[in-house]
Amino acid sequence: MTRDADAARSEQGERAPWAPPVDPVIHAPARLAIVAALAAVDEADFRYLLYATGLTKGNLSAHLRKLEEAGYVHITKTFRGRIPLTLCRLTSKGRQAFQRYREAMLAYLQR
Questions:
Q1: What's the rounded Cα separation, in Å, for the pair 28 and 40?
Q2: pTM for the complete prediction?
Q3: What is the pLDDT of residue 2?
Q4: Residue 80 sits in which domain range?
């Protein structure tokens, strides 16, 4: 099987027979970096996540949107004085999904 076939399966929500049973929303490298950073704190602002993940502003915004749509991240937009402030935190659903992801990966790596 080629990488293209594996990628197509992944996009369709299917997993290769050799792959661990992980959540495809979290498994994307950028989203995994975001979720891992948020799992270590109660909440984080957008700027913190930019530096923690190394993503661009547009890329970070797009991945946060996908995580928010999945119910894994809660985003609050407010102001600090006159400066816009975007705060992000993992929801309980997001924390549970990340814990399941970690357990699945550990079990897979220990095989």
A1: 19
A2: 0.81
A3: 46
A4: 25-109
b/e sequence 93-108, b meaning 16+ C-beta within 10 Å: ebeebbeebeebbeee
Q: Give CA–CA dist 3/8, Å, rounded.
A: 9
Residue 11 in any domain: the answer is no
Tell me the helices (H) and strands (E) count for the chain, helix number first. 6, 3
pLDDT in tens, 31-49: 999 999 999 999 999 999 9
Please give the average per-residue pLDDT across 72-82, as a whole number.
Answer: 96
Indicate whether 13 belongs to any domain.
no
Please tell me the distance from the alpha carbon of residue 26 to that of residue 21, in angstroms, as a whole number.
12
- The CATH number of residue 89's host domain is 1.10.10.10
